[in-house]
User: What shape does this take?
Amino acid sequence: ITTVKVCTDCYCSLTHAKVPCFVLANNLYHGSLPDQFQDLTWVEEMVCALYQNLAHVTCLYWSSDPAQPFVFHGNTCAHETNLLSIVKVLPCTPADINGMLTIVFVGATKLDVKSLRSLFHVCKQAVWSFFCWLATHNRLYKHISLDADIMDLYSDDGTLPGLAKHIVYD
Assistant: This one.
């Protein structure tokens, strides 16, 4: 006897003689990403995402250690929203990404946005290379228009543009 663990969604589909939507039989698995894309940041992945349905809230606390004033601690929560947006042109604009973000900052001073570079980093060349790879290797991206003018809204290698407008001070 072989026991197979199946999630509730898959079990429901199988009991109704349907193929579950995210199984390998649906050709949604395309293998591992090449090494050059293994270190994409979560913001860079959001810039490339076809489906946007999350709100990201990051709560950061200023370090109380005077020897390390730029060390933050905190957490990020991703919340599903009722709206599911399917893009037709990529990349997503900085305004699109910022519209899903909120940063709550708790500290004695104003936050220097440059200090958030490691958390909200976007490298334009890395994102564009990833798009080109996806368009060639992922059937879901084959009919998506890639807009170089939108990509030019991002800095070559820096923090997500417009991020400062989405910081709430507490």
Observations:
- DSSP finds five helices and eight strands in the chain.
